[in-house]
Amino acid sequence: MLFGNWGYGAARQFDVTGTGAVELTKRHHTFSLTKQGAATGNLRVNLSWRMRTSDFMDDRSTSLGAGLRHPFRKFTPEVVAAQGPAVVNVDLDLACMYELQDGTKGVVQPLGNILGSINSPPYIQLSGDDRFGSGAGEDIYINMDHREEFKRLLIFVYIYDGTPAFDRTHATVTLYPGNGPQLEIALHERAPEARSCAVVMIENRGGDIVVRREMKYVYGFQSELDRLYGWGLQWGRGYKSKV
């Protein structure tokens, strides 16, 4: 089999979506890339999102049934007839705070055009900035061939501009390892006033690379996440260039 014992036995240990991806949830919130043979090559972290109207609420029974009947439907934006306020104006950004084994700390993010590097420290690189919720989204690439140099990596999402409305966007962070199943974390908790969300932590636990779901919302920006996780970076105001 392609993923060794990945299949029925693994499905009992993790929550699996209709597409075969592993969904990190409150119940099953950790996943070892090392134990699944997926800690090599480039790990792609994708943020996909789209804006939705205030009347577009989660109908769990409808969405679940449709997902089982049409597993690829989740990738097709739904047409929503707005009855109240129009589409929410939100610009979500994907970013990564990193700490290396030698003590080096920093951030890779669109703000300030801090894009990183995939072939030299920090071995993390941001590709693109999706300001409008397109289908492609934003990607961060992590060079797992240098995994021994990582101590911890915090993948987070923040609202750069527009309404602080995580609860009115449909956002998912997906990890695509070089080998093995993809990992999904849906940002569906209700946090109407939050501007930032720590989504997932990737830690080197004595050589075991473990992904842990965080899903911690804060009402400030990067500096508040920094304080929450004790990173110790210095932050200042920053702006994006005009489109």
UniProtKB/TrEMBL annotation:
InterPro entries: TerD
Domain of life: Bacteria
Protein name per its UniProtKB record: Tellurium resistance
CDD domains reported in the protein's UniProt record: TerD_like
